[in-house]
């Protein structure tokens, strides 16, 4: 395993099985630390949150994670309040900000932006989402939630539902789960199916997966049901969207067939893909999943800063 | 003189001969190498070949290929040979090998890739050599051979 001290986290494709296990163990350790001890971990660190596009949850989660570890947080929440609005290039912004902070958390609408930033600076870059490409800390928190609920990640049956073509979270999750021999079920309309490049990667690792067009085909088989939002703008014909969206919506009634231990995850925000009454069931794990963003991001911040946990 | 008559494409005194090109790649190679009117260029298409059923050939008078150009040839015609010609003789014969893709050789097909939105060099990694598939180092989007766009 490559050392985490000083290491940038750009893509789940750069992460090994050992890395995943190490980060999840570190998140567990950090979660159990007393508040006062946590506050000392990044006491002298400065974290720059560079959000070139608005993202309330991810930004606040990173900010809260860093502040709770005692770090100072600087940055901007949208490009309108940065020099990007004056036409400053990403390269120039990074060259400036690297003088002010040791860890640069970057959210950018263009794919590859975080990788470019990491090639420009010797400071640590953490990708907090680059367009439709990668959002690796989301994947770590998804895995952490799975690990907490099932006490393991290996050999689980996991269904991912919704927009599997454009959804970066499901691409990264599928790749990450491929390190743990999980059985995968892809539930989506044909036009929003899992990209062939991801399926080929899974085939190389002998991961068993199958395609489905109905949640009810898989609900009794899975340990994890990972729901995603189907976006209206992906459809040329609004009637086609209206017809399809309900086929990929989870109803409380369907959960009668589910395993008692089955957990539902969702990267949020959600629109209409889950009945609200599901929130009250033992299967709902998505708010806990969002909360897990804190210990997971704390672990990553601490590890890249060279903190021994 | 007798030798020249036997050649399907006329010999050149000084320059470069790119041989064993798939015929359907010849025109793309000419375009890609930006071979313009400053050098005399002779091309042959659908020529008989010992190695392949048919081959193409490009003869460029008066200049050698740069390493960057050789890299482009290797991407498009990995089985080609590049011969350096002096005084009508082959003084150097080089079998093209595609090891990696030089920076700033290809342009990413993804309009949302940072390399298409900011002045920066492009970088690609080879995922598969045959058939060729490459991945953008930045946005991680893959492209097949027929999708490649050269800079």
| Largest sheet geometry of chain B | 5 strands, antiparallel
Shape of chain B: elongated
**Distance N to C terminus of chain A:** 16 Å
Q: What percentage of residues of chain B falls in helices of 4 or more residues?
A: 10-25%
> How many distinct domains of chain B?
2
The number of distinct β-strands of chain B equals 10
Helix/strand-derived category of chain A reads: alpha/beta
Structural class of chain B: alpha+beta
Number of helices of chain A: 11
CATH architecture of the largest domain in chain B: 2-Layer Sandwich
CATH H-level name of the largest domain in chain B... which superfamily? Aspartate carbamoyltransferase regulatory subunit, N-terminal domain
What does this structure look like?
The complex is a heterodimer of chains A (309) and B (151). Chain A has eleven helices and nine strands. Chain A has helices at residues 17-32, 35-41, 56-68, 90-97, 113-120, 136-150, 168-177, 196-204, 238-245, 286-291, 293-304; strands at 46-51, 72-76, 103-108, 124-130, 157-161, 183-187, 209-212, 224-227, 263-265. In chain A, the strands form two sheets. A five-stranded parallel beta sheet of chain A has the order 7-6-5-8-9. Chain A has a four-stranded parallel beta sheet with strand order 2-1-3-4. In chain A, helix 1 crosses helix 6 (136-150) and helix 4 crosses helix 5 (113-120). Chain A is globular and about 55 Å long. Chain A starts with 16 loop residues before the first helix and ends in a 5-residue tail after the last helix. The mean pLDDT of chain A is 94. In chain B, the strands form three sheets. Chain B has a five-stranded antiparallel beta sheet with strand order 2-3-1-4-5, with no helix packed on it. Chain B has a three-stranded antiparallel beta sheet with strand order 7-8-9, with no helix packed on it. In chain B, strands 6-10 form a two-stranded antiparallel ribbon. Chain B folds into two domains: 15-95, Alpha-Beta Plaits; 106-150, Aspartate carbamoyltransferase regulatory subunit, C-terminal domain (SH3 type barrels, Roll), CATH 2.30.30. The N and C termini of chain B lie far apart (40 Å). Chain B contains three helices and ten strands; from the N terminus they run H-E-H-E-E-H-E-E-E-E-E-E-E. Chain B is 15% helix and 34% strand. Chains A and B meet through helix 5 of A and loops of B.
